[in-house]
Specification:
7-stranded antiparallel beta sheet, mainly beta, 1 helix, 7 strands, single chain, 124 residues, 10% helix
Length: 124
């Protein structure tokens, strides 16, 4: 059996998220004509937003992803259900949030929970 990373960012494998939501977003230039009917034109292709969540993540794994987030824009390889295969798109990191779950006696976190981050298609 061959294991493939679920997501790669600039060729770097990201720890497999607990949840990966795929959202297709369509940009539209629209307005209404004199009769009040919507007149719309599709802009570019449908773009993707990946919402990622790690229910539990260790500090080293979290730190690695946070360092990738700081690079802001990169090439993301992920499985696209519409295409039915892994594809690569240019994406940027959106906001993220995380909670401390378990700390050591000296207060250093040993584990985090609820780490959420998103990758948003640039349209290129």
């Amino acid at each position: 059996m061959v294991f493939v990373a679920v997501i790669k960012y600039n060729g770097i494998e990201i720890t497999c998220p607990s949840v990966q939501d795929y959202e297709g977003q369509q940009l539209v230039d629209s307005g209404r004509n004199a009769n009040g009917v919507v007149v719309a034109q599709k802009i570019n292709r449908r773009q993707v937003k990946l919402s990622l969540e790690w229910k539990v993540i260790y500090p080293k794994e979290l730190q690695k992803i946070l360092e990738l987030i700081e690079t802001f824009i990169g090439k993301v390889t992920y499985y696209d259900p519409k295409e039915g295969k892994f594809i690569t798109r240019e994406m940027y990191w959106g906001d993220y949030s995380v909670s401390t779950y378990w700390v050591s006696e000296n207060g250093t976190p040993k584990m985090f929970t609820g780490f959420k981050a998103s990758l948003i298609d640039t349209g290129k």
